[in-house]
Each structure stands twice: as structure tokens, then as C-alpha cells.
Write a structure and sequence with these properties.
By secondary structure, this protein is mainly α. It is built from nine helices and no strands. It is globular and about 50 Å long. Residues 208-244 have low confidence and may be disordered.
């Protein structure tokens, strides 16, 4: 049995980007973004995939539609505005509408772009619970452990901020037990202080009190637009370096 090639060898090619495979591509993209955030590894140029998404998005449904919309939004944060497709604004708006309802794909983007969902907290919890129940299924979306931990910590912070410290602590304990390869999760659970905000970015090696590192994809998102959707409607001003 031969091993599958690493994502950098296929993630930028249109050949395998077909119905039923879109979540596989989104999972691989998230893996590259996690590596970029942790070790500054480059991401693969996915402009060919984005061009195909522009073509087929109106015909996609369900998880293929959501995964494609998420890929399009996320990758274009690595592309300089003047190098984006002529259809970018139109397709971007459509993608934001696709991801306006609760889904794990939308939750991933909310996490990466530091946006608190406007969905009820119960919907956010349901999405996360469903993710962990289905992540190992063939049809499930698998998210890098860094972002799994981030989504749990972000939900814990939402509970903590709303005064439900028991739920916040329970989520921190869950992360410490079930997400095994992300550094300080056990310490975060042990040292939980209901008066201190839970910031998932402490999981990043560049984490500091200074805030978001300048080279993160979400660095240009304005806090005043939080809750407007997976991403703000206007252009991101501070882009990361051009992808390979």
C-alpha cells in the first residue's frame, strides 16, 4: 500500500479538486496555515484552485460548498489585493454568505480571523461537539490540533466572559485530556483564573502581550468588525507575504 503524497504536491492542482474532495483540500490548507503560524513554513499557491472555485461554486452544495468557500476566503488573505482575480469581490461576498450560518468551516475562519461568532453560544458548542464526534469519519473534516485547541479555548472564553466559569473550566479540562500535542493546555486548565481572559494565541510560539504577530494572516482584520461574518466585508489592509 503506497503512502499518499504530502499536500504541497497536490493541494495547488485542480485535477483532484472534485465533488467529495473539497473538505480534504480545506483540511490540507489548514494544516499548511498551522505550520505557517508555528514554524513560518510557506503555504502552497492555490490560485488555480480558487479559479476553479469561482467556476463551480454555484453548483456545489453542502460540505463541498462550505469547504470551497472557506478555502477561497482563507487563501486570498495570502494574495496581494492587486493580484486577486477580477471576480474576487463578487465570489468573496458569496462565500461569506455561504458561511454565515453555523458550521465547522465557518468556525475555523472565525478563529483564524479573531472574530467571535454572532451565533448563539449553544450553536457554537453544538458545532464543536459535532466536530469532535465526526472528525475521524471518512466524511469528517480534520482540523490541525492547534486549531482544535484554539476553537475549544475560544468557546471557553465565551463562556467565561458570559459568567459561566464552570463550563469554561470544563472545556479547558476537555482540551487538556483530548488534544495531546499542543503545549500548555494542561497548564491552562490547572491555572484557570475566572478573572483572566482565555487567549488561544498563547499556544503560538510568538505569543506575547504585544498582540498578534504582524506576519499572521489575520493581522489586518479590524476588531470593530467582529461578528460581521467569517471575515470583514472590506479589504484586509496588512497582507502576509506572497505564498509560494
Amino acid at each position: 500500500m503506497s503512502a499518499e503524497m504530502a499536500p504541497q504536491y497536490w493541494i495547488g492542482q485542480q485535477t483532484g479538486f472534485v465533488k467529495g474532495a473539497c473538505r480534504k483540500y480545506f483540511s490540507a490548507q489548514l494544516g499548511q496555515v498551522a505550520s505557517c503560524m508555528l514554524t513560518k513554513q510557506p503555504v502552497t499557491d492555490m490560485r488555480e484552485i480558487c479559479a476553479k472555485i469561482e467556476e463551480i461554486l454555484p453548483r456545489l452544495r453542502g460540505e463541498d460548498e462550505r469547504a470551497s468557500a472557506a478555502i477561497y476566503i482563507l487563501f486570498n488573505q495570502f494574495v496581494q489585493p492587486d493580484e486577486r482575480s477580477a471576480q474576487f469581490a463578487e465570489v468573496y461576498e458569496r462565500c461569506c454568505k455561504i458561511l454565515s450560518d453555523p458550521s465547522i468551516e465557518a468556525l475555523c475562519l472565525h478563529l483564524l480571523f479573531s472574530i467571535t461568532p454572532t451565533w448563539p453560544i449553544a450553536s457554537q458548542r453544538e458545532m464543536l461537539d459535532t466536530y469532535f464526534e465526526t472528525r475521524n469519519q471518512k466524511s469528517g473534516l480534520r482540523v490541525p490540533e492547534l486549531f482544535e485547541a484554539g476553537m475549544v479555548l475560544s468557546l471557553a472564553e465565551r463562556y467565561r466572559g458570559g459568567g459561566d466559569t464552570l463550563q469554561a473550566k470544563a472545556l479547558l479540562d476537555f482540551a487538556a485530556v483530548n488534544i495531546l500535542h499542543v503545549g500548555p493546555l494542561a497548564m491552562l486548565a490547572t491555572d484557570f483564573d475566572p478573572e483572566v481572559a482565555i487567549n488561544w494565541r498563547v499556544l503560538l510560539p510568538q505569543a506575547s502581550s504585544a498582540g498578534v504577530p504582524e506576519d499572521m494572516p489575520e493581522a489586518g482584520v479590524k476588531a470593530s468588525q467582529a461578528g460581521s461574518g467569517p471575515l470583514p466585508a472590506e479589504e484586509v489592509d496588512n497582507e502576509v507575504d506572497q505564498s509560494n
